[in-house]
Amino acid sequence: MNVLLRTERKIRASPEAVYALSLDAQGFPAVFTGFGPIPGLRRITLHAPPAIGSTRELEDNDGLVLKERITALEPGRRHAYTLSGLHPPLAWLAREGRADWTFAPVAAGTQVVWTYVFELTSALAWPVAWPLLQGCMRGAMRRCLDNMARTLESASEALR
Q1: Three-state SS at 62
Q2: Which secondary-structure segment (H or E) carries 60?
Q3: 0.90 surpassed by pTM
């Protein structure tokens, strides 16, 4: 059984710029600030340059480390990854998360769609996992996209 999360936002920046920030090991932690019990990110450590199959570690603000493995990479258009190494209490509810980001050019910017599919540990996890992930993880995703927009749009305005 899975829980599907989806959020999207228009950002007034090029697909290449939005894509670059979403993969930026230095810049992304500043825009993923968490929500409720979902902590923000402190640091991302790359094990290799971004490529299909490459991995990276994400240290959250609680000091816990998660692992991402890139499963799709289309510069300026899409990237996807599997999130593993979840810690309790989320590890009691979900085995892993599979994220997929798409970046489509639209008038004056980029339409970003970010989905996550969390594979639950069992059907019994559903009553707790669904509200936690829909409320808090999706809230963290929305907040992240809002922060990305502020970062990229203010940088764009500074160049004018």
Answers
A1: coil
A2: strand 55-60
A3: yes
